[in-house]
Specification:
Elements (H helix, E strand, L loop, with lengths): L9 E4 L4 E4 L13 H4 L3 H4 L7 H23 L2 E4 L2 E4 H11 L1 E6 L9 E11 L2 E11 L4 E8 L10 E2 L1 E5 L11 E3 L5 E3 L4 E6 L13 H5 L7 E5 L8 E5 L18 E6 L4 E6 L5 E6 L2 E6 L5 E6 L4 E6 L5 E6 L3 E6 L12 H4 L18 E3 L4 E6 L6 E6 L4 E5 L8 E2 L12 E3 L5 E5 L5 E5 L5 E5 L8 E3 L10 H7 L11 E5 L5 E5 L2
Antiparallel strand pairs: 1-2, 3-4, 5-10, 5-35, 6-7, 7-8, 8-11, 8-12, 9-11, 13-14, 14-15, 15-16, 17-18, 18-19, 19-20, 21-22, 22-23, 23-24, 25-26, 26-27, 27-28, 29-30, 30-31, 31-32, 33-34, 34-35
Helix pairs in contact: 3-4
Length: about 525
């Protein structure tokens, strides 16, 4: 008789010539001890007393990992429990997120507390040109700096090494997984005021310029420009710059290396709170204290597309680049179609609108507003999902985090409880596979929620500082978009892809990495 197939969750009885569901230990195997006899650590069973909280968490994680892998071997990719059916991959990612490790980089104070962005570029080394990961950081102190991301074991040919030091949960329980960052004075410059935003311009597109060398042309799809905006001050308004990364970086240059790459595109009389770039064009939207303006980053021309009596604190384009989500200080989230022609009263310059004095009374919330959602406080962060552009998150300064559907904006779909905030402009972060939502709290806690269930799966005080900026890098080809990540992303079961996320604060840059 031909050998029978192995079916997950079933075993084949040759005598009865049929499959039977697996209940308990596999046939022929030694019966395992009852789970209750091994559910506590050896120290507790031997009566040696109460152990440290970290060791207890480690033992609990070990038991969870063992049960999860055992269930996969028996049932395959679909896990069966009393509460329903679950995906092994989702449960594995949840296990990573619930047991992270946190590192801090020394001598990075005041450089990452207002903007944080990971990018891809080409650098000049002693051995020649090579592609690399870069981390751009902007501070409230008006500084902007670039750091090369390397493995901690790699040798650096230039500048100081900013090595990570474990800060949570306990140094002796850490795995080797945090990257090192390297830089020098050539990758640092200071602008006119605080950095409010760093965003990449468009998607990665091939550059066919004739004067590029063959090697540069091979990496031209990786080199791309970035937009940098400044907040502005009492003396002058904010400005918009383009950071040129189309030429290879040379960290051994003199201190003017980065400043020569900063090209000022536009300046205004208003405060620039936030900005975002379209993935389909060279246009950018800036959120100011009087509304939203569109800027052509090539020509520098601008036009006011949305006028508001309150500050626009957060923005994000959808994947099409046609709809712009704007979070406003008065608690409104507005979806603006930038293709529509605006009334003539909107087509005025920033200099003229800065002279208009609006009353402080908040705008009346009309019940028939089809393009606006409302939160209970100032909206400090808006994040649209890449897998389904109809859904987006909104976070307000009273600690509320809600999920909305653009088709039904009158009410939120789901709430995420536990966040703490009262007046800080804290960013939300979503991992590339869009399974988790992360935010730092004003109480110095870091919290992670499951997007699907809204369950809080991690809540710990990992540092004595607030994390206003979050950067969850994209793996693979670093393209924006959910489909590109799934196509080019790394193996989700590899330890190197255990979702590392950058956290910026005034006390220094931090790196959080999930573990198993």
């Amino acid at each position: 008789m031909a050998p029978q197939k192995d079916l997950p969750g079933f075993y084949f009885d040759p005598d009865k010539n049929r499959y039977f569901p697996i209940k308990g230990p596999l046939p022929g195997s030694k019966r395992a001890r009852p789970f209750s006899s091994i559910s506590s650590p050896p120290e507790e069973r031997s009566g040696s007393g109460r152990r440290h909280h970290v060791h207890s968490a480690r033992w609990k994680k070990l038991m969870e990992s063992s049960k999860l892998l055992q269930s996969r071997e028996i049932n395959g990719g679909l896990l069966i429990s009393r509460k329903g059916l679950y995906s092994f991959q989702e449960e594995y990612q949840k296990l990573l997120a619930s047991h992270p490790e946190v590192w801090k980089y020394h001598n990075t104070n005041f450089v990452s507390d207002s903007a944080l962005e990971e990018m891809h570029g080409v650098v000049q080394t002693l051995q020649g040109l090579k592609e690399t990961h870069l981390l751009a950081m902007g501070g409230i102190n008006s500084s902007i700096s670039l750091y090369e991301i390397k493995n901690v074991r790699q040798r650096c040919d230039y500048g100081p090494n900013y090595m990570p030091a474990p800060v949570w949960p306990s140094p002796r329980d850490f795995h080797d997984g945090a990257p090192g960052i390297f830089s020098n004075s050539a990758a640092f410059t200071s602008l006119s005021s605080s950095i409010s935003c760093i965003k990449r311009i468009g998607r990665n597109t091939p550059n066919t310029t004739d004067n590029l060398s063959n090697f540069q042309h091979a990496f031209s799809y990786l080199t791309i420009d970035y937009m940098v905006t400044t907040l502005g001050s009492g003396v002058s308004g904010g400005s918009v710059y383009v950071l040129n990364l189309r030429e290879p970086l040379n960290f051994s240059e003199n201190s003017s290396g980065l400043s020569r790459r900063m090209n000022k595109v536009s300046s205004s009389d208003c405060t620039i709170w936030t900005a975002d770039t379209s993935c389909c064009s060279t246009k950018a939207a800036i959120g100011t204290n009087f509304g939203v303006s569109l800027i052509n980053l090539e020509s520098g021309s601008s036009s006011l597309v949305y006028r508001c009596r309150s500050d626009v604190l957060s923005q994000q384009f959808d994947l099409s680049g046609n709809i712009l989500l704007c979070g406003i200080r008065n608690g409104t989230i507005v979806a603006i179609d930038v293709r529509q022609r605006q009334p003539k009263c909107f087509e005025v310059s920033a200099r003229l609108t800065s002279r208009i004095h609006y009353p402080r009374k908040k705008p009346r919330r009309s019940s028939n507003s089809s393009n606006a959602a409302f939160m209970s406080s100032a909206v400090c962060s808006v994040v649209a999902l890449q897998s389904d552009e109809q859904y987006f998150f909104g976070s307000s300064m009273d600690g509320s985090i809600k999920l909305f559907d653009r088709r039904f904006l009158k009410r939120d779909i789901q709430s995420y409880e536990g966040h703490m905030n009262s007046h800080s402009q804290l960013q939300l972060g979503v991992n590339p596979s869009e399974t988790f939502l992360l935010s730092g709290g004003q109480d110095c806690f870091v919290r992670i929620w499951s997007i699907k269930t809204s369950k809080l799966i991690f809540e710990e005080n990992v540092s004595n500082c607030i994390f206003p900026t979050v950067c969850w890098p994209y793996y693979g080809d670093f393209s924006y978009g959910y489909d590109e990540f799934l196509k080019h992303g790394e193996n989700p079961y590899e330890s190197t892809c255990s979702w590392g996320v950058w956290l910026g604060s005034r006390e220094g840059l931090h790196y959080m990495r999930g573990t198993t």
